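Entry 12.
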Amino acid sequence: MRRGAGRDRHRLHAGATPAALIWSAALLAVPFLSFAPAQALPWGLGAALLLGVFPPVLVAYLKKRNDLRRFGPSSLPPVVLGAAALGFMLQRLILWLDGPLALSAAVFALLAAAMVLLVANAFTAWSWLDVTLGAGIVMFGSLAALLFTGPVGTALAAAVVLILLVVILRRARAGSPLQHLAGAAAGTAAGGGIFLWLLAYAR
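Predicted 3D structure (tokens):
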């Protein structure tokens, strides 16, 4: 790991739980693009709990027991490692059970964002929250526009994008602006780009 990485570890890991909540919201909503509400809700709840809620709870439990020390250092927060591993399992379930392909697109977006963070943090110290916020601009903007058609959808999409942009800029103003903005831009390109690309074939 690069020199000085230890000084950045707390900041890198600090946003993992808020980011997990953002991904939970996206995973909860996205199956409604593929299925009727009665079918979409179980998939959305299951994905949100599996990838968004379970990893932070498990990591908190392992931290309390000091069991995380058994694992070697990584440029990904433990919450992200857990969510990525579970994401591969969820993809298999979607394939076997003919699940919502829009959900598969969201899971691939999470995996792409995690891979970008893994590579980038070999050289710098991006935050998973910044990468998530960047991906969220595309994902939540698209979800709002597609789930709520017409002027309502357009207004909701614009509002969501604006809120996320404000959060990113506030984080950038608080310190290390280039790292925050670069992480968010990478999340937009990787997570958001993969989501839009796969969503075009999933609906």
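Annotation: The chain has one domain: 5-202. The chain has a mean pLDDT of 88.
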